[in-house]
Amino acid sequence: MKTLLEGRRAEIEASFAKQGLMRIFQASINKLEHGALEISMPYSDAVSQQHGFFHGGAIGALADTACGYAAISMIGEDEAALTAEYKINLLAPADGDRLIAVGSIIKSGRTLIVCQGDVFIEKDGKRKLCAFMLMTMCVVKNLEHK
Amino acid sequence: MKTLLEGRRAEIEASFAKQGLMRIFQASINKLEHGALEISMPYSDAVSQQHGFFHGGAIGALADTACGYAAISMIGEDEAALTAEYKINLLAPADGDRLIAVGSIIKSGRTLIVCQGDVFIEKDGKRKLCAFMLMTMCVVKNLEHK
Amino acid sequence: MKTLLEGRRAEIEASFAKQGLMRIFQASINKLEHGALEISMPYSDAVSQQHGFFHGGAIGALADTACGYAAISMIGEDEAALTAEYKINLLAPADGDRLIAVGSIIKSGRTLIVCQGDVFIEKDGKRKLCAFMLMTMCVVKNLEHK
Amino acid sequence: MKTLLEGRRAEIEASFAKQGLMRIFQASINKLEHGALEISMPYSDAVSQQHGFFHGGAIGALADTACGYAAISMIGEDEAALTAEYKINLLAPADGDRLIAVGSIIKSGRTLIVCQGDVFIEKDGKRKLCAFMLMTMCVVKNLEHK
């Protein structure tokens, strides 16, 4: 199994820290490997919808971020990767204390990287799958991805 | 053309106001009709990614909200509608001052409502399409949608 | 683990046999369980595109069918299920002798069943993942699904 | 408005004619312009599902083909375009005599072309929207797309 490029971990952590959306979500990186990322965020007013659950848009945003950095963890030194598109199915009400998004790679090609995002809701210590994302990243040359 | 149910406008405005995510985004409703909603938000740190553009996840969240309420504007008095799934294509970097999401209806069925979301980025007074969403809402009975 | 409803296997086999598209594809059911279906088809002119590979639309159609019957294998006696929507990512050129689609269940709800379709291309006895589908079935009452 | 590249019409017609799937569908090109394609097919056993309607997979395949060639009509002389992914919502039972798919362009970029597919069912001379596709083509260099 491949490992993260030298310096890539620090790059991704610095990039993640620059995302205002992730800061306002109080999101943090739990695990980062070559082609895999887990991030999570606590429930807060900032990510809520009208019933007091996690907002579907916040769920999508967390999964998008997890998938995006999972792809970025695999690309070459002179490459960047941008989100081309994503689809998410919301599977259950996201009623809980914490949301966890796990990004992984279905297929890594030269131009496109196809990612899978599994999103879990945690309530009283129990995890349940609450959303599933399928997304496409587009690899480009010479764009700062930090 | 049909018009909004009596009281539905006030319901949607109250529901929107309860969404913590929309408040943190500083989003507001610009236009609300039967089957159509326009919402917008200014650029701010809260919706940013690492390059200082609107975060793809925030774009998805705004479009999801616009499509969702466009569907809710059409359902019956005793019905609610939940997001089943959405897909979004990001078409251009969302580099600008303001993001506008327009939700409209492709097809309204008894159980499923299929919506379209057009997202525009505004910079120096010019609007440009920057994302396109296709989403499915599921109509249910007896769930408070306020 | 649940098993197929009495008679459901025969129903699905009869329904599959009635699909002209599957006949023209020379597709057959390899495996059928509660919530899981595998079907396959040989390469032929009927499923080809301009380069002599399997047509992306034929790949989608096979995966749609695998996912659809995987969902139908789980529903109640008086229920039917219809395809609401599907998304497919084509991961590699489908250059081979045989295409295999495996439908399985991500989440089964009262109204919606979310399915996953893994499509493999077989060449000289080796299997490779060549497409991935995420799809939504809508469960309805009182519609003949045979 | 741009027009088709010299020779591109003949190339697309020849490529379409080579697709065994389109032949078995008895599909034909009705209209071809720069960035827009309309194709149609009659109802036949070859495209049927178990209830005698057009098969959802055949609907997807026709829309995929319409979108694909709409994108190919716009690319440069030395370029080819491959389907990266597509999503389709089935909006109504495709119960009719003829299916018409119209492919058009939402956004054309250097690497990705995002297309829209509107699919209509025609019965007794009346057209009704029955499916909507959102798809992504990936532009590549030096691949024969004929």
What does this structure look like?
Four copies of one chain form a homotetramer. Chain A is an alpha+beta fold. Chain A has one domain (8-141): Thiol Ester Dehydrase, Chain A. Chain A is built from three helices and six strands. In chain A, a hairpin with a 2-residue loop joins strand 5 and strand 6. Chains A and B meet through helix 1, helix 2, helix 3 and strand 3 of A and helix 1, helix 2, helix 3 and strand 3 of B. Strand 3 (79-90) of chain C pairs antiparallel with strand 3 of chain D.
Question: What keyword list fits this structure?
Answer:
homotetramer, 146 residues, alpha+beta, Thiol Ester Dehydrase, Chain A, 3 helices, 44% strand, globular
Short description:
The structure is a homotetramer of 146-residue chains. The first copy, chain A, is an alpha+beta fold.
How are the elements arranged and paired?
Four copies of one chain form a homotetramer.
Chain A: H1 8-18, H2 20-24, E1 28-33, E2 36-42, H3 56-72, E3 79-90, E4 98-108, E5 112-123, E6 126-141
Antiparallel strand pairs in A: 1-2, 2-4, 3-6, 4-5, 5-6
Q: What oligomeric assembly is this protein in?
A: homotetramer
- Average pLDDT reading of chain A: 94
Distance between the termini of chain A: 25 Å
CATH top level assignment of chain A: Alpha Beta
Shape of chain A: globular
Strand segment count of chain A: 6
CATH topology of chain A: Thiol Ester Dehydrase, Chain A
